[in-house]
Amino acid sequence: MSCSRSGSAFAGLTLLLGVFLASGCATGSHYTRPADPVQTEYVKPEISPLGGAEPATVQHISLGGGPPDQWWTLLRSPEIDRLVSLALQNNQSIVSAKAHLTAARERVRAARGAWYPQADLAAGAQRTRFGAPVLGPLAKDFPPFSAYTAGPEVSYNLDVFGSTRSRVDEAAADAQYQSEQLAAVALVVSGNVAIEALQIATVRAQIRVAGQIVSEDGHMVSLIRAARELGAVSEMDVLSAQSQLDHDRTVLPPLHQQLSEAQDTLADLIGVAPADAPSTDMDLEALKLPDDLPLSLPSQLVRRRPDIGAAEAQLHAAGAAVGVATAAMYPQFTLSASIAGAGLLNGGPSETAWNLLGGLTAPIFRGGTLSAERRAAKADYQAAFAAYQQTVLNAFSQVADSLQALGNDADSLSTQQRALESARASLTLTRQAYVAGDAGYVRVLDAERLDSQAQLGRVQADGQRYIDTVKLLLAAGGRIDFNRNDHP
Predict the structure, then answer these.
(1) What was the pLDDT predicted at 7?
(2) Angle at CA 289, nearest 5°, toward 286 and 291?
(3) How far is CA 254 from CA 209, 249, 250, 321, 452, in A?
(4) Residue 226: pLDDT above 80?
(5) Strand intervals (E) in 42-171
(6) What is each CA distance from 25 to 57, 59, 326, 327, 460, in whole angstroms?
(7) Residue 61: which of 414, 415, 405 has the closest Cα?
(8) Which one of 4, 90, 392, 440 has the fewest CB atoms closer than 10 angstroms to its CB?
């Protein structure tokens, strides 16, 4: 009769566990990636950002797989290659991101440990005297005694409702987030290095042009002073020429300050103090702008950009947190066993004792805490999904802005080149007319001012075009694999 009852109890327990296991399939986290965007263009189809530019200055956009991982190589500058390599090795933000990634991966391993039985070594000793409630009248004749137990204990949590699975999933999503963060930091650092290097080249070119202008002004002052000694011009012409020279000299100190700031920023990016920064030989005229710019489709961009990948990883982690909160509302099943040696401390005989226990813990009343935590987790998931969508929109906006900027840069470069040619021709004719006595020096000053502005504007337009090209390559996304052996 007892055997029959035991068998019925065992069958009932088996059936109950089966029901719990079946219902457990509906708990836990089951992440599904967001659908790819339906957009096929970054700007309105009727607008072509580079369509209005002159053929000599236009760059071509190739929709496809996007730029290579080492995107900066498209600039074909050995100096930029060297500086980016130094930054990827020494930049402290990258070092910090790597450490965060290592810690996150270790947390994944720690979370996975809950899938396995947990073994501990337990030992205990006690001093005991039994009283009358235990031994009755014999208690007074039973002496106090000291006993010990020592041995291993093993426990195992049956993850029926996916709590452990959801925690592992959450930890893995956090590790993926840190991986994306590392890629994002590396992309930003490499982009800032390239931009600062181009800024240095642009400012140096401006300093070179400003120096040539000052030299020409000085030469003109010498000529006018010589003419003044001969009585051919007035003292007013000498003062006007000297004033122009002094004015053009004021351009140089701010340019030197910009150069120093760009060099200091570059030193910070490559992980050294400004006093220890390596020399940088960047010449704007030696650079060659890439004519073909690879750009991925919007549906591919969401898989390339690390900031979008980080937002998706946070969405994944938020979904796993919902699974954790859901599993907390269901029972927890544990199995535990122990085996120990037991005996008296006074040297009495030792025996082996063992224990096997199955446990169930089910929440009954928690004052609404568990339901509130689950609703909060679901709200966090909705917030993470909105943040993901906003990150995608921001990425599309950055690409569109960069495309528009390149179109405007091409127009600006053409306009500045024409302005420079016109100003140079006007200055040459005006100086000739002044020497011949057909024009006053005021006209010469105006022509020199326009020529100076046109020269500096031409250099600025050229440098800005390089910088906006870098911004487009960054917006197009790129991943830097630090595990590759051929990586700098």
Answers:
(1) 46
(2) 145
(3) 14, 10, 8, 54, 16
(4) yes
(5) 60-64, 118-128, 145-158
(6) 61, 54, 12, 11, 63
(7) 405
(8) 4
Would the pTM count as exceeding 0.70? yes
Hey, what are 72's tokens? 């900066």
**pLDDT score, position 488:** 44
Per-residue H/E/C for 160-202: CCCHHHHHHHHHHHHHHHHHHHHHHHHHHHHHHHHHHHHHHHH
DSSP code for 403:
H
Count the alpha carbons within 13 Å of 27 in the hemisphere toward its beta carbon.
24
pLDDT tier at 94, thresholds 50, 70, 90: very high
Question: Does the pLDDT value for residue 252 go beyond 80?
Answer: yes
Indicate the angle between helix axes 78-90 and 92-112, nearest 10 degrees: 50
In terms of Cα–Cα distance, which of 357, 317, 352, 465 is closest to 405? 465
Residues belonging to the chain: 488
Distance in angstroms (rounded) separating the CA atoms of residues 156 and 358: 10
Task: Check residue 47 and report its DSSP letter.
Answer: -
Task: Output the six-digit token pair for 406.
Answer: 């390149």
Alpha carbons within 13 A on the beta-carbon side of 334 = 16
The two structure tokens encoding residue 378: 């679901």
> Which amino acid is residue 6, in one-letter code?
S
In the sheet with 351-361, reading across from the earlier edge strand, the strands are 118-128, 145-158, 332-344, 351-361
pLDDT in tens, 169-196: 999 999 999 999 999 999 999 999 999 9
Task: Count helices and strands (H / E) in the chain.
Answer: 11, 6
Task: Enter the tokens of residue 289.
Answer: 């702008």
For 438-483, what is each residue's pLDDT tens digit?
A: 877 778 888 888 888 899 999 999 999 999 999 999 999 877 766 5
Reading the block at residue 145, the tokens are 């005694």
Q: Which residue has tokens 């900031």?
A: 307
- In DSSP terms, 61 is beta-bridged to 293
- Could you read off the pLDDT of 302-323 as tens digits, one per residue? 999 999 999 999 999 999 999 9
Single out the residue of 311, 43, 25 nearest to residue 159, CA to CA.
25
Average pLDDT, the chain: 85
The rounded distance, in Å, linking the Cα atoms of 50 and 140 is 104
Question: Mean pLDDT, to the nearest integer, of 153-167?
Answer: 89
Tokens standing for residue 275:
């006093």
The two structure tokens encoding residue 292: 């073909």
Contact assessment for residue 191 and residue 70, using Cβ atoms and an 8 Å cutoff: no
Among 414, 378, 487, 477, residue whose Cα is nearest residue 54: 414
* Side-chain-side CA neighbours of residue 70 (13 Å): 16
Q: Give the integer Cα–Cα distance in Å for 19 and 40.
A: 48
- C-alpha closest to that of 83 among 205, 212, 191, 160: 191
Separation between Cα atoms, residue 192 and residue 83, nearest integer Å:
11
What distance in Å separates the CA atoms of residue 382 and residue 335, rounded to the nearest whole number?
A: 37
- DSSP secondary structure, 4-23, as one string: HHHHHHHHHHHHHHHHHHHH
